[in-house]
Amino acid sequence: MEKQLELTEMLEEKQVEKLNNSNIIKNISYDQTEILHNIGVLYNNGSDQFDADMTASSLGFYDKSRGYAYNIPAPKILMDVCPTRHDIIKLEKWGSLPLENESIHSLVIDLPFIVSPQNAPSVKAKKEGANMIFNRFSSYYPVDNLYLSYYHWLSEASRVLEENGICIFKCQSVISGGIRHNIEEFSFMAAQRLGLKMVDKFTLLAKARLISPKKYKAGQVHSRSYTSVFLVFVKSSKNKSKDFNYEALLNRCETEEKENYKNVVEK
Length: 267
Prior knowledge:
Layout: H1 2-18, E1 28-29, H2 32-43, E2 52-53, E3 77-80, E4 89-90, E5 104-110, E6 114-115, H3 121-125, H4 132-136, E7 139-140, H5 143-160, E8 161-171, E9 174-176, E10 179-181, H6 183-193, E11 196-205, E12 227-235, H7 246-258
Parallel strand pairs: 1-11, 2-3, 2-5, 3-4, 5-8, 6-7
Antiparallel strand pairs: 8-12, 9-10, 11-12
């Protein structure tokens, strides 16, 4: 028995030794299929096959013709508010996922992040070269609707995921009306309140971005984002002793500050 344990430990050590900067799973990539593949390896029982995608759109994540590093198979259940194919289930913007409670293990979500009214004069005019980013993605307006929608669909994710199920949530923070909207941070806070724990974060890097001439005609005020993130949430009803509830932690910070940290114990 002891020899078997020693052998197992030696094998584990050798596996760890094999990892290096060329083959270790990194938290950054220029290829979103590499990120999805790595999420599958770490959190989906080693599989690239996810159960459902509620923002399937044109199946960009699963398009083999785009020359991505990995061929991610399309999920078994495809849904979208604006379906582009007959096999994609139509969702209502503020509706529910057509799934039973705790019925799937994995769900992919990639919600719109553009803030712009659908009936804006510049959009109606359809001027060539204008609203390039808007025309590629759906949008929210007013901006409150973005936050409400993100919370709503994270709530639905929490409902339909089984215990220890995962939600792959792609998002990015944006500048709108001269104000930075911290969508990534809000998504984390909303997910935690809904019983989803963030266990990982992958950053997708871009070598180029669409640049709106109108936005920068008076000069640049904020940095242009060349990143988006894939947040990995796990549904878990169990709280480990080392888990942090950040809202509760902030409440404690306020209390300790008022009481001059007299109750803080150092070990």
